[in-house]
Specification:
The complex is a heterodimer of chains A (419) and B (166).
Chain A lengths: L1 H13 L1 H36 L4 E5 L3 H10 L8 E2 H8 L4 E7 L4 E2 L2 E5 L3 H5 L1 E2 L3 E2 L2 E4 L7 E4 L1 H7 L6 E2 L17 E7 L10 E3 L1 H7 L3 E2 L2 E2 L19 E2 L1 E6 L5 H9 L6 E4 L1 H44 L1 H9 L4 H42 L10 H27 L2 H5 L4
Parallel strand pairs in A: 5-12, 9-11
Antiparallel strand pairs in A: 1-16, 1-17, 2-15, 3-16, 4-5, 6-7, 8-11, 9-12, 10-11, 13-14
Helix pairs in contact in A: 1-11, 2-9, 2-11, 3-9, 9-11, 9-12, 11-12
Chain B lengths: L1 H15 L13 E8 L3 E9 H5 L8 H15 L1 H4 E3 L5 E9 L10 E10 L7 E4 L1 H4 L5 E8 L2 E7 L5 E3 L1
Parallel strand pairs in B: 1-7
Antiparallel strand pairs in B: 1-2, 2-5, 3-6, 4-5, 6-9, 7-8
Chain lengths: 419, 166
């Protein structure tokens, strides 16, 4: 048995060029399959962590997923704003522990600007009740002061004391608010959530930079210098959305019904975790397709292995016949061929995992910066063991075929020259 | 432009999404269940279109229809048979409140039911099975919103998938 296995390894080594090509194909295919599964799993994890500290998101009536994505992930847009009075009415509801209003819509070099009271830094929590922490500086206390998320500070190389100008809208080259620059007073510690990409300013600052604006453009002939804005009432009239934390999380349905039937204006309260699950339900089909396609790539890789080994079998007639003549039983040959196939598959998967680790190292920061998805460093999740077992099992089945053929090839077949 | 691709995928997904919970809809055959899991108790709020329970949404016209309505109410009242939390959590039924429709002339009628269970060992609570689909053959789906100390979630129950787990 051992001799047979050693023979298998040595024989494979003798044909290393052909086999290494097959091995590469299997490595790439399995790396792809594991990457798809890992990104799928970790995307869910990261998104769930981003919303875990918020019990309800309130906004104008639209789609639940849309509102959640806009308020928490700052993607897409809101259909309507909600009135300040509605915020006050909801914030004083007895079930509410904290309520933080948000104003969205402006940006700084592609990063969303979040208008919010300083309370935001105290109340907002992510992944299992971790509060926001400052890496440098502190919360803003005045207008024209800003607190940056860690990714904003890192990517734009900004630090406490630097000055930035905001842009109206999300376009990088939109109309500017250059006349009223902001001073960076704080930088948040990394969270792995959309907070990292936020430029946080006070609600009053948002009002102040839009004082001399109307209908989405600066009023011609009217420019209110930054030093005069304090003379105006900077209390916002409207907000985009509202994040709510409850005293008792089980009260969420009661408050949700209360807000959905609020008489002042049409409002909608969304449970972010529920909206996220609905999003996954919808995306489930896409995920399954991606997973199925990468599984197919693995099957193609293993089919390549099968083809290589079957083709090799013809060239190895002599080798196998000599082994038989030296006393190897058909069973030994079967074992040798199967072992070879399985060896290539296992090595391929191992290289694939190595490739995945290297890929994770290089692409994880990119995924986190652009999509807020944190790829975890880990060997295997339970469902990845299943994938691994499935690949090896398919590899085994593919290797049995050349093994069976070798078993059936007669001694005479290899020793009789055909011509 | 991976972010562009991602946005496009999201927008496509949004277009496919069902109308959110907030817009209080009424779809025959589709029930809604809110599950609030507290420290020691579970509160289940069920909303069932009357059609799913008895096949019509108006006041009963004869004795047969009256009997159907009464039978539906009786089934819904038997909460211990309707909802089966993880046995290890040793949950017992604490209260039941059924609001049968009043038939006040609206186009649709819903049954609202509230159930409270108390659990001796809430840490073991991992799932709730429902037998609603066995009792009400016209019911084909229940949209579930769930909240627990661990977080929130949504699920869709059907005759084939009648266990809510988290």
């Amino acid at each position: 048995m051992r001799a047979v296995l050693i023979l298998a390894v040595k024989s494979a080594w003798a044909r290393r060029l052909t086999l290494s090509v097959t091995l590469c194909a299997i490595a790439l295919a399995s790396a792809l399959l594991f990457a798809v599964e890992r990104v799928r799993h970790d995307a869910r994890q990261s998104f769930t962590q981003a919303v875990s500290g918020v019990d309800l998101v309130v906004g104008a009536r639209s789609g639940g997923v849309q509102l959640m994505l806009h308020a928490v992930f700052h993607s897409g847009s809101a259909t309507h704003n909600i009135r300040w009075e509605s915020f006050e009415a909801i914030a004083t509801h007895p079930a509410v522990d904290w309520a933080v209003p948000l104003v969205l819509g402006d940006s700084h070099r592609g990063f969303p600007v979040l208008g919010t009271p300083p309370d935001y830094f105290r109340h907002f929590q992510y992944s299992d009740q971790r509060p926001l922490a400052f890496a440098a500086g502190q919360a803003f206390a005045d207008i024209f002061e800003t607190v940056l998320g860690s990714a904003v500070a890192a990517e734009l190389k900004l630090d406490v004391g630097d000055r930035i100008a905001l842009t109206h809208g999300m376009a990088e080259a939109g109309p500017g608010h250059d006349d009223k620059p902001f001073t960076v007073v704080g930088v948040l510690a990394p969270t792995g959530t959309p907070v990292d990409r936020g430029v946080h300013v006070s609600l009053e600052s948002i009002s102040a930079i839009h004082l001399d604006w109307a209908g989405g453009a600066p009023l011609p002939g009217l420019a209110i210098p930054a030093e005069f804005v304090r003379k105006f009432d900077l209390q916002p009239k409207e907000i985009t959305a509202l994040l709510i934390g409850l005293k008792n999380r089980a009260d969420v349905f009661r408050l949700q019904r209360h807000i959905n039937s609020y008489r002042g204006e049409p409002l909608m309260a969304v449970m972010p975790g529920v909206a996220l699950d609905e999003l996954w339900q919808t995306l489930g089909m896409v995920e399954q397709t991606l997973l199925a396609m990468s599984a197919l790539v693995v099957v193609i890789g293993l089919a390549g292995l099968l083809a290589t080994m079957l083709a090799g079998l013809n060239e190895r007639r002599r080798e196998l016949a000599i082994l038989r003549a030296l006393g190897a039983s058909p069973r030994d040959l079967f074992l040798m061929l199967t072992a070879e196939g399985l060896l290539i598959t296992t090595l391929g998967v191992a290289f694939g995992l190595g490739l995945l680790a290297v890929g994770t190292f290089f692409f994880a920061p990119l995924l986190q910066a652009h999509f807020g998805i944190i790829l975890q460093w880990r060997l295997f999740a339970p469902n990845e063991w299943l994938l691994l077992a499935a690949i090896l099992a398919t590899g085994l089945v593919a290797s049995l075929i050349p093994g069976a053929r070798a078993w059936r090839m007669s001694l005479a077949d290899g020793l009789t020259p055909r011509n | 432009m991976p972010s562009l691709f991602f946005s496009a995928a999201l927008i496509a997904a949004l277009a496919l999404l069902p109308v959110a919970h907030a817009a209080k809809g009424h779809a025959h055959g589709e029930g809604r269940l809110d599950v609030a899991i507290g420290k020691e108790q579970i509160v289940l709020s069920l909303e069932l279109p009357l059609d799913a329970a008895i096949g019509f949404e108006r006041a009963p016209k004869n004795d047969k229809e009256k009997a159907l309505l009464a039978a539906a109410a009786a089934t819904l009242n038997d909460a211990a048979a309707l909802f089966l939390p993880t046995p290890a959590a040793s949950c017992t039924l604490h209260s039941v409140q059924i609001d049968m429709p009043q038939f006040d002339g609206g186009a649709h009628a819903d049954i609202a039911a509230n159930y409270t269970f108390r659990c001796a060992n809430p840490a073991a609570l991992k799932s709730i099975e429902t037998t609603l689909f066995r009792s009400f053959k016209r019911l084909y789906r229940i949209e579930v919103q769930r909240v627990s100390p661990a977080g929130q979630g949504a699920a869709r129950l059907s005759p084939k998938q009648s266990v809510l787990s988290w």
